[in-house]
Amino acid sequence: MKNSITAKQTAKILNLHGKGKSQREIAEAVGRSRSGVWGILKRAGLVKAKKAAKPHSKSEARRLAVQKGKKR
Asked: Are 56 and 26 contacting, i.e. CB atoms less than 8 angstroms apart?
């Protein structure tokens, strides 16, 4: 069973984020993983999803497109 984050922990995460603490510091303070903290902040609209990295070259872009089944 997944350990649910409590309303009290959520409030503490949001409070610490408002005080400028890093996600690592917040995770340590509430006893949760950094990804768990990130999820709470994301649901609260305080962080955005990470963007996929762009290819470094045209040949890498073609290779990635082929892997995804797209033709270029």
From this structure: no
